[in-house]
Write a structure and sequence with these properties.
By secondary structure, the protein is of the alpha+beta class. Helix 7 (331-355) packs antiparallel against helix 8 and helix 16 (561-572) runs antiparallel to helix 17. The longest helix has 25 residues, at 331-355. It is elongated and about 120 Å long.
Length: 615
């Protein structure tokens, strides 16, 4: 270099102010500068690749289209070199001397006017280069244009207020950026640190990235390739890389769309659900890219919260990023992107449920809880999600499930409601009194085992114009069923017994009546409030404070031997009959999850046993 060829330029006052913002306020993470410089290098290479289609006389045409990065801990420098299009003297002044003036943006405009579109250009804002000054005391750019008759130059600045340009023979085609790191940022001169940053943000840049002569971007951006060109092994390798997983995915969805947005997506459903086996709430796992450059690895607004189990990549060239390329500016466009991806995934699940029901059943076993969460919390997708819900029922074998739509297809013509019962498991539901009346009438009942199922049904309300109704509600009216075997109490005796029971039990019961639902059980208790009795019982088992209803409905089976004997006993030994009545009521409360304190029940049981033992 020669001092006489050195030019010194002052940044204008407003440019100094903007430069200060770029250095100190624009980016939330200092390491972003590596991503920005690699992005710029990728742009320069892409411009040259495109240019070589029409231009044959290119300076140092033998140089490979690649990015080379060197770390030097001793010197405290990081060097990023590309063999791209390079810069002339005028372009140095125009593009590096003026913040927010980007050759990439002009290049895109030129391509657009020429009827082409190149989404591989990622530097749109002209400020990424200046992110280097967040960590640098000095930045040097050694560059030579692709034009053979142009000299090489060195641009240098401390980022304070001015920059210098010199002619130089120490240049190759493209740009070599040397970052002299400040004392607090020497870690960026370590190969391991830089390698981790590259893998996090720039793994899918289309050109080779070599760090100290070792290629570090070894995984292809599969989402940009045609599905017919990709093997299952490549998909699995990509999934393991992107999701930091060791197994194979349960599902994969690879698609692209041009309208209403330009979208390239590769989304995986894992095989296991860490939340289900006790791990904390997982973070979103679908990364957002813009033209292959990572914008956000865990975007919270990209997909609904109930799809947080998904892994993969969504890339859109239409995203209006903010100036730092760290967040999206247009919230409306973000929501549009979210809707497109979500609806496409739900459509995919609907197709899988029909084509491969056993595989879908396994998926729903692990991830159905998230779909239920969506039904309970997200009105936008509630109807679509409801079609994907599957439950065991009174007509399915143990372990087999059915959808709400299939339930509706089997309903009786006169049936107005879809009935369900919440319980711990199939055995507890089938052994309880609430199923008997439905079973006797041939009415199907869904079996729900998870506490969230109650919220799902109450929030869903209806499905295909059929009301969703808990089978243990007190106000259900069922059609006449076939008469069970056994002699029943006469209507007068049954009515008299109900009145006596109301008096014997006292204020704890609102009403006692003959049941139209009981077949083999003697009694059952029903809660007239909104929360089902089974839900109340399960919530109490989970340690939640659930207020008991003030009023309880009590139904008796007039054909059961206990009830017939109780009717006889109240005339011959009323004291014992009252104990049995109260004990039967408490037994029903326990079965319904309505018993608050069992100590009186236990004491009464001993009284009954004592009297029985004396006979």
């Amino acid at each position: 270099m020669s001092a006489q060829n050195t030019e010194k330029h002052e940044f204008k006052a407003e440019i100094k102010q903007l430069l200060d913002i770029v250095i100190h306020s624009l980016y939330t993470e200092k390491e972003i500068f590596v991503r920005e410089l690699i992005s710029n290098a990728s742009d320069a290479l892409e411009k040259l690749r495109h240019l070589k289609i029409t231009e044959k006389d290119v300076h140092q045409d033998e140089l490979e289209l690649e990015i080379n990065i060197k770390t030097d801990e001793e010197a405290g420098t990081l060097t990023i070199q590309d063999y791209g299009i390079g810069l002339t003297h005028e372009e140095l002044v125009e593009n590096l001397g003026t913040i927010a003036h980007s050759g990439s943006k002009q290049f895109l405009q030129a391509l657009k006017e020429g009827g082409e579109k190149n989404a591989d250009l990622i530097g749109q804002f002209g400020v990424g280069f200046y992110s280097a000054f967040m960590v640098a005391t000095k930045v040097e750019v050694f560059t030579h244009s692709w034009k053979k008759d142009e000299p090489g130059h060195v641009w240098s600045s401390d980022g304070v207020g001015s920059y210098e340009i010199e002619t130089s023979d120490d240049t190759q085609r493209g740009a070599r950026i040397v970052i002299h790191l400040g004392d607090d940022y020497k870690d960026y001169a370590k190969a391991d640190t830089v390698k981790e940053i590259i893998k996090r943000y720039s793994s899918f840049v289309q050109f080779p990235i070599k760090l100290n002569d070792e290629k570090v971007n070894t995984v292809d951006a599969l989402w940009l390739r045609s599905k017919s060109e990709i093997t299952d092994e490549e998909y699995t390798e990509f999934y393991k890389f992107q999701a930091n997983a060791f197994d194979e995915p349960h599902y994969r969805l690879h698609f692209s769309a041009d309208a209403p947005l330009d979208i390239k997506a590769l989304i995986f459903t894992p095989k296991t659900n860490p939340e289900r086996i006790g791990f904390p709430r997982i973070d979103p796992g679908v990364a957002l890219h813009c033209r292959k450059v990572l914008i956000d690895s865990k975007p919270t607004e990209l997909l609904p919260e109930w799809l947080r189990f998904l892994k993969g990549v969504i890339d859109s060239a239409d995203l209006p990023l903010n100036i730092s390329r760290e967040t999206m500016q247009d919230n409306g466009l973000t929501q549009k992107l979210s809707r497109v991806i979500t609806k496409r995934y739900l459509k995919f699940l609907k197709e899988e449920a029909k084509k491969r029901p056993e595989q879908y059943a396994e998926f729903f076993k692990n991830f159905g809880i998230y779909l239920k969460e969506g039904v309970a919390t997200d009105f936008t997708y509630r109807d679509d999600l409801a079609k994907l819900l599957y439950f065991e029922s009174s007509v399915t074998e143990k372990g087999k499930t059915t959808s709400l739509a299939d339930y509706v297809s089997r309903m009786k013509d006169e049936q107005k409601s879809i009935y369900y019962i919440l319980g711990q498991n199939r055995e507890s539901i089938e052994s309880g009194p609430y199923l008997e009346g439905f079973k006797a009438r041939g009415i199907e009942v869904l079996f729900l085992y998870e506490p969230i199922d109650e919220y799902v049904m109450s929030n869903l309300g209806t499905f295909e114009e059929k009301e969703l109704t808990s089978a243990d509600q007190g106000d259900i009216k069922l059609d006449d069923a076939p008469k069970p075997e056994g002699e029943a109490l006469s209507d007068d005796d049954a009515k008299s017994l109900c009145e006596w029971l109301k008096t014997a039990i006292g204020d704890r019961v609102k009403e006692v009546k003959v049941s139209e639902r009981l077949v083999s059980s003697p009694v059952m208790a029903l809660s007239p409030d909104a929360m089902s009795t089974q839900m109340r019982r399960m919530m109490k088992q989970m340690g939640q404070d659930v207020p008991m209803p003030v009023e309880v409905l009590f139904e008796i089976n007039p054909r059961h031997e206990l009830i017939k004997n109780l009717n006889t006993q109240r005339s011959s030994n009323e004291d014992l009959a009252k104990l049995i009545a109260q004990q039967s009521f408490d037994n029903a409360l326990v079965a319904a999850g309505l018993m608050e304190d069992p100590k009186d029940m236990v004491a009464r049981m001993y009284q009954i046993l004592e009297q029985a033992a004396t006979k």
